[in-house]
Design goal:
Elements lengths: L1 H10 L2 H19 L2 H32 L5 E8 L6 H4 L10 E9 L2 E8 L13 H15 L11 H14 L6 E3 L1 E6 L4 E7 L3 E6 L2 E5 L4 E3 L2 E2 L2 E3 L2 H9 L13 E6 L5 E5 L1 H4 L4 H10 L6 H16 L7 H10 L11 E8 L1
Antiparallel strand pairs: 1-14, 2-3, 3-5, 4-11, 5-6, 6-12, 7-8, 7-13, 9-10, 13-14
Helix pairs in contact: 5-6
The protein binds 2-acetamido-2-deoxy-beta-D-glucopyranose (2 copies).
One 2-acetamido-2-deoxy-beta-D-glucopyranose binds next to loops.
Amino acid sequence: MFTSLGGVGLRSPRLSRSMFWLGLLTIVIGYLLTTEDLYRYANWQSRGFFSGSSAGFNASSAQASSSLPFNYKAVVAYQAKDRSDGVYANIKNNSPTGEDNYFIAMRNSSDLYAGVADGVGGWAEHGYDSSAISREICSCMRDFVFTSCGGKSTPFTPKQLIDWGYTKVKKDEIVKVGGTTAIVAHFAPNGSLSVANLGDSWCGVFRESRLVFQTKFQTVGFNAPYQLAIIPDSMLKEAARRGGSYIQNKPNDADEYNFKLKQNDVVVLATDGVTDNIAVEDMELFLKDHADDANLQDTCQTFVDQVVKLSKDPTFPSVFAQEISKLSGKQYSGGKEDDITVVIVKVE
Ligand SMILES: *[C@@H]1O[C@H](CO)[C@@H](O)[C@H](O)[C@H]1NC(C)=O
Ligand SMILES: *[C@@H]1O[C@H](CO)[C@@H](O)[C@H](O)[C@H]1NC(C)=O
């Protein structure tokens, strides 16, 4: 086809050849000059541009994974729910994050562990600091990354980290009583993301603002997540006597995941204060709107601020309200007020 056109071109006079191109150009421009088509053209342009840059990007990422390590940037934002009510008034040591807690342990810019944990609130009603267990486990996990394990050359998995954190808090009797979810992610120098999740916190990876990976919630029933618990024997016996029991999982019950990251991926770790309110699609829209933000910390804070606002909106059709509506057959609406903690890691 191309050769045959060339043959025609060779035999044609110069003038008619340029007239042919002029004509073609006119037709193309004519085709483009409606608003809709201009819009389509612009899209095509950016897609074309994007695909060009993505080809270059693939090349550089292939190079990066073979020689240069990946780099990670991590930020956190949180907002504890309002605790003016009496149950919490006499409880000391509440974390600024509420019953949520987090840790970010960056050994260097290409080797990072991060996690969030959500303490089970019910214990506050019995006079216990229900933020203690998530806070202490996070603190032990952070210490492990930097001290106990920092010197070892063998890499350790997020599940091992959860196990070590929980075992230490339990063995050293750092916390009297409590229960917590835990999700931990490791970002390795080679771009491999590994995640261990126990309970209903969440990890998602967004690429070009689209979700490409997410963890599954672990629950034993509605609003009853898997949890690591510390409960004195006397309480266990008392519960058994009354025919009840507590949810008590082992670190080994955590689901494990592996995912290969690419440059510019955005990884979100969040407690259920986020996922009970907004859906993945809402997160995608948010990230798309903020794709050009210069400051990751500001993006994370704005994200949390928006979720907090929705969680207090009585008309917002939150994920939680929709689930209750489905279960009860009645229409509910409104956000779910809760502690909200978000760690965002950007792959650079
Ligand atoms: C970062 O830490 C990891 C594990 O400790 C190590 O393998 C890697 O070489 C370090 N990278 C840099 C850039 O220091
Ligand atoms: C990347 O690093 C992780 C964590 O150290 C390791 O488990 C995995 O095998 C590595 N993957 C490749 C393809 O080298």
